[in-house]
Design goal:
Arc Repressor Mutant, subunit A; 2 domains; alpha/beta; three-stranded antiparallel sheet; nine-stranded mixed sheet; TIM Barrel
């Protein structure tokens, strides 16, 4: 079964670190957008009759900006177009400022079972630096409201490595998320992009650049803290209480199929990958039908490497035999010298034909991935 991704490109403000495609929500006709998105979903269902889905993820942007009736209509459109399995994971990304009891109740009534809250930090100084529309008190209230509204899973997203005054808040942030009852915590390392507001401030010396070494130490300490509190470290950036892993996101890491809808949304079906053009105006003009697509037709070897790298993000690692069956003998095998060197160095774990990063390997995952890519080059 596939996953369905519904992309809503609207945001109240652009955060200082954000490099994604988005448009300001103020003054926009979100009703016209929802109609176009529903039309695209319906057309895709007609093009893929009988296709079954076991996850529907509403992301962005900020999908919680949409009025609940519009969001509910989009979920109904997905159910009408595809055979959405009973018990499917229906997830919504939401910002704290959009969460109150009435909206949470409406989302639950529409079928949302999992809510992922973009807290980013419980530290007010960092929130101001990021230009987040909420403060720490609002974030805490939002998590409590979500927790009391009957969602099957409440997830909290945090950013690690944020510059700012005073002690680094990472450990306090993860402890607060756990104390508030989060079932899932995503801990993403800050990425500084040159063309963002934060990137420019760092380039001009107005904000101190984050230290990679310090970030690695905080990541390790945060991982140990969350594991001690009963969370499974199931993916490099993700921790979950038992039974609360993100079923939709696991599709991305396990080379599974998914269909994406909305401007800039990506899809992967039938061995082909494509993305909708990142152009909301064009999307609205065509009403979601005949959307311009950009196809990503890469060689089989490149696809295999992508599957290897994304799969190694999971604590369970990858089954090299399954990848070889799907893509052919284009990847290093368990007995490859490069694999042996990484295993001897304590960066990889090899067992039963599966390859997985060790805890130490997670800290230098990019270096491990590069070494495996070079080994694949030698095979070809």
């Amino acid at each position: 079964m596939i996953g369905l991704y519904l992309h809503v490109p609207y945001c109240t403000v652009r955060c200082s670190y954000c490099d994604f495609y988005l448009v300001p929500a103020r003054g926009r006709d979100v009703g016209a957008f929802a109609a176009a998105l529903a039309a695209e979903i319906g057309a895709a269902g007609a093009a893929h009759p009988g296709l079954r889905a076991d996850s529907v993820h509403c992301g962005g942007g900020t999908p919680s900006i949409l009025p609940p009736p519009l969001l509910g209509g989009l979920l109904d459109a997905a159910r009408a177009a595809f055979a959405v399995a009973p018990g499917a994971e229906i997830a919504l990304e939401a910002n704290p400022e959009d969460i109150d009891a009435a909206r949470a109740g409406a989302w639950r009534a529409a079928g949302v079972g999992r809510i992922a809250i973009g807290v980013q930090s419980f530290d007010d100084a960092r929130l101001r630096l990021m230009r987040r529309p909420h403060d720490a008190a609002r974030a805490q209230a939002a998590v409590r409201t979500a927790r009391s509204s009957g969602f099957a899973s409440v997830a909290v997203d945090l950013i690690l490595g944020l510059p700012g005054p005073g002690p680094d808040p990472t450990l306090a942030d993860v402890a607060r998320a756990a104390d508030l009852g989060a079932d899932h915590v995503s801990l993403y390392l800050l990425e500084v992009h040159a063309r963002t507001r934060l990137g420019r401030a760092i380039a001009l010396g107005r904000v101190e650049a984050p230290s990679p070494d310090a970030a690695a130490e905080r990541y390790e300490a945060a991982a140990e803290c969350l594991e001690a509190l009963g969370y499974e470290h199931y993916e490099i950036s993700n921790f979950a209480r038992p039974g609360h892993r993100s079923r939709h996101n696991i599709k991305y890491w396990t080379d599974a199929e998914f269909l994406g809808f909305g401007p800039s949304a990506h899809s992967y079906v039938g061995g082909r990958r494509w993305a909708n053009a990142a152009d909301l105006a064009a999307y609205l003009r065509c009403g979601g039908r005949g959307v311009e697509r950009v196809f990503d037709d890469q060689p089989r070897r490149t696809r295999a490497l992508e599957a290897l790298v994304t799969g190694l993000r999971l604590a369970d690692g990858v089954d090299l035999g399954l990848l070889a069956a799907r893509y052919g003998p284009v990847l290093p095998a368990p007995g490859d010298p490069a694999v042996g060197e990484l295993e001897t160095a304590g960066l990889l774990r090899v067992a039963g034909g599966r390859l997985a990063l060790t805890r130490r390997g997670r800290l230098v995952s990019n270096e491990v991935f590069e070494r495996l890519m070079r080994a694949a080059d030698e095979i070809s």
